[in-house]
Amino acid sequence: xxxxxxxxxxxxxxxxxxxxxxxxxxxxxxxxxxxxxxxxxxxxxxxxxxxxxxxxxxxxxxxxxxxxxxxxxxxxxxxxxxxxxxxxxxxxxxxxxxxxxxxxxxxxxxxxxxxxxxxxxxxxxxxxxxxxxxxxxxxxxxxxxxxxxxxxxxxxxxxxxxxxxxxxxxxxxxxxxxxxxxxxxxxxxxxxxxxxxxxxxxxxxxxxxxxxxxxxxxxxxxxxxxxxxxxxxxxxxxxxxxxxxxxxxxxxxxxxxxxxxxxxxxxxxxxxxxxxxxxxxxxxxxxxxxxxxxxxxxxxxxxxxxxxxxxxxxxxxxxxxxxxxxxxxxxxxxxxxxxxxxx
Amino acid sequence: xxxxxxxxxxxxxxxxxxxxxxxxxxxxxxxxxxxxxxxxxxxxxxxxxxxxxxxxxxxxxxxxxxxxxxxxxxxxxxxxxxxxxxxxxxxxxxxxxxxxxxxxxxxxxxxxxxxxxxxxxxxxxxxxxxxxxxxxxxxxxxxxxxxxxxxxxxxxxxxxxxxxxxxxxxxxxxxxxxxxxxxxxxxxxxxxxxxxxxxxxxxxxxxxxxxxxxxxxxxxxxxxxxxxxxxxxxxxxxxxxxxxxxxxxxxxxxxxxxxxxxxxxxxxxxxxxxxxxxxxxxxxxxxxxxxxxxxxxxxxxxxxxxxxxxxxxxxxxxxxxxxxxxxxxxxxxxxxxxxxxxx
DNA sequence: GTGAAAGCGCTAACAG
DNA sequence: CTGTTAGCGCTTTCAC
Lengths: 343, 343
Prior knowledge:
2 copies of one chain form a homodimer.
Chain A: H1 6-13, H2 17-24, H3 34-47, H4 53-60, E1 65-70, H5 79-92, E2 96-101, H6 106-118, E3 124-134, E4 145-152, E5 158-162, H7 164-177, E6 183-188, H8 193-208, E7 218-221, H9 225-237, E8 244-247, H10 250-262, E9 272-277, E10 291-294, H11 297-313, E11 321-324, E12 328-329
The structure holds a DNA duplex.
């Protein structure tokens, strides 16, 4: 079963290969008669002809592929959405995506980038596993690059990250709208942009709502179920306990459900909870479902591709960037606060 | 900044392009003198020459790429491990992976497979989002294919799935080893291979341990936190409550923690829990950490690649398959059962 | 030891 | 309207 080439189709249809090429590619300038065109199409179909992309790409001097390289992306459940967003945008543009993973090893990363360059990739999407600032690796120089979920120290390189401030604000606004005024925030103890920016958003939203900040209601904890549980335990044990809790992360919010259950407090009647991440299988699986802020991973993937394509066609330019908003996903964990029980 | 080609290197080194090619590829038969070879290497380095993979592949008649196509893989947090396992195995073989996602749309899937064929992929990894039986799509005919996390109805196609029976057995063995004899099983209510096979493993392990099966201890529930919670509530309320619970899925086991907390039962002192999936951020984030059976996604990805490469070099053959064991991950949710409180 | 030449399968000028 | 021709950049006989 030898592969059928354009020559076979030409022979079969009794025309030259250039006619076949023009007919199959609908080349306007080459005015092929409808009859010949149909005949060629017919023969090509019968033979099961599939143009050889290798030859085509070599001739066209474009590979039609874009590289996606992640550090430890594979360890986060959100990575897939980013990849998906990029892949679908690429599909629309008729491009393919080659996926690589560097495991955070710079030497390996350099080899992978070399392999991508060798394949003449038209651009590289360089994804971080979490929102941070970084220097694009030297080996990317000369290849159009967009950073995903990372801010570039090099202003020439484009990047896209979530708008953490807006996300936190959306969460707090949702609680304020339901009438809450004592709103706790359990932040990630790690010193990363997301933690700093969500805290800023939390404060900004409270301020705008005319609610004074009570430092006692802001806790930091390890980004685990246990961390979230411990913080909730403390906050819910207070005489003036908050009527709502905003969590840095859905996983931490699981701990809040547990603490509430233990304290015989109902979610949301006694305490409303808002998370962050919209973690698959978790946020919607909790009961009541966890209201949470979705990270715009899909959108970041798509944005990065569009930016890549734009910079490819246009000139080089200085590099652009975006902070994308995540949607607030409303589920059952937020309601009006309980009426004060006297005192 | 034009791309430097082999011709530039040849000119620079004062030799012909064939000599450059032979030198750079260490072709034994062409006996290049060490001096020329070094000179060529030097010039190539200085010029930053990178061979054009497109041209090389066209000439060699192999693309060096393998396609990975998933249905809704992108929606599951485990997909990444499968992709990672495949990617690393491919890297060792010097191959690249093109990633596609069909979203479960057969028409789209056919187009994507066509695009992969056009790129002359050397094989396709066809991944399912969960363990099931399926018919490989018609469009894959003629391309070496391996199914991941799916059993093929077509015996000509190779496949790899988790060994669900062994996984469940490992979970129960762990509990039995710790002294448990009343072990509940909360299964997924969905009628899928994983549910049937894990039940079989549960029963087999009990039998082998000489423990009679008590149908009252087997429940089915929706595969959510809530489903797991409801089942745990019922089971833990029984007079003769089980001392250990085995869950179809980590997410469901979260509900068990909540039910236990509510019933003032300690995990693991009063009730031991074993999950399934080793869900990232969840299993290790719970407290105590959830002992669970890891799905061999990484290994499935790697196995599939090896099988693909083997079938590529060897003849076609009838298609092979494997059921891979997942590891039991021990954390803090299992201990010896409580001493019976009288009765 | 090294070079000339052919050709992978295709597209795109240009002729006719 | 259709065919001829010239490559895309590389590898690989086969001469010398």
